[in-house]
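retry 2 of 3: previous attempt timed out while embedding adenosine-5'-diphosphate. Reduced batch size to 1 and resubmitted. Inputs unchanged:
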Amino acid sequence: DELISQIAAGEVVERPASVVRELVDNALDAGATEVVVKLMAGGVRSILVEDDGVGIPADELPLALRRHATSKIASLGELESVATMGFRGEALAAISSVAELSIASRTEGAPHAQRIDARSGELVPAARGRGTSVEVRELFFSTPARRKFLKTDATELAHCLEAVRRHALARPDVGFAVWHEGKLVEQWRRSSLDQRVREVLGEDFVAESREVQFEIGPLRVVGRAGTPAAARSRADQQYVYVNGRYVRDKLIAHGVRSAYEDVLHGGRQPAYVLFLEIAPDRVDVNVHPTKIEVRFRDSREVHQAMRRAVEAGLAPPQA
Ligand code: ADP
Ligand code: MG
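retry 2 succeeded.
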C-alpha cells in the first residue's frame, strides 16, 4: 500500500510547487480569505501553508490524510459539476507518502486547535486561530532518486511562486503572501481583478493588453489579451482558467493563437490572462490527478469562443 501511494504520489507531486498548488487549492476550497505560504530552501526543506478557512474538525483530521478521502464530493453524479478545486481526495495522502506532513487545524467554536502528524497519526493540542496550517517537510526524503531530480532552491522557489501566482490571478478576493527563508518575497492584498492583474503581471502588461469580455451561448470569456504590438514575447505569461481552475490546454491555446494569426509575426508570443466560464456539464476536469488538463464536450465551441473573444478584445473600438 505504501508503494501504491508512492506511485500515485508521482502523478501528483513532482516538486515543491506541486505541493504548494495542492495545499493552496485546499485552503481556497475551505473558504480562506488569506493564504500564507512559508518556504525553506525553495520548499524542499519545508512548505507551510496557513489559511483562515473553516478548518477541519478534530475527529476528521485522521480522515483527511486517507487516500480517496474527500469531504467535497458525496456522489459520482457530483463529479459532473465540481466547483471545488480538489475532489479526488488524493493530495494529502500522496504528499504524506513522500514527505513528512502535519496538519494543525481549528474550526469555529473549537476550544483549541489540534495537530496531527501523518506518520504517527498522533493528535495533540495546538495553538492557532480558526483555519488550517499544513506543514510538509523534507520532500522526497525517502525517495532519493526523486529528490535528485529537484533543481536548485532558487529554481524550485520560482516554481512555487508561479504556483501561487496562478491562484492569485484567479482569486483577487483572497490575499496571498509568500515567505522564503523568513523573508516576505511576494504579497498580494485582497483587491479587484484589475488591480490583481496589474500587481501580478505588471504595469507594462496592462499597458500592452486589451480587455476581453465576450459571451456566446453558454460560454463567457473575460480577462486581458496582449496586443500584437507588445514590446516583447511573453510565452511565460499565458494564463488560462476554466471555471476558475488554471489549465494548460492545447485547444484553448490554439484558439487564442488563431486570433493573432494575421497580426502577429515572427513567432512572437502574446501574454494573456483569460477566464473561460462554461456550464460544468460541458467540461470534464477529472482527466488527470493534477487537474491541469480538461476535456470539453464540444471542443469546436470552445475553440471558436476563445478565438472570437480575443479578436473582439483586440479589435480597435468602433467609432
Ligand atoms: P481533496 O481536496 O481532493 O478533497 P485532499 O487530499 O487535498 O483531497 O484533502 C483531503 C480533505 O482534507 C479535504 O477533502 C478536506 O476535507 C480536508 N482539508 C485539506 N486541507 C484543508 C484545509 N486547508 N482546510 C480545510 N479542510 C482541508
Ligand atoms: Mg485537495
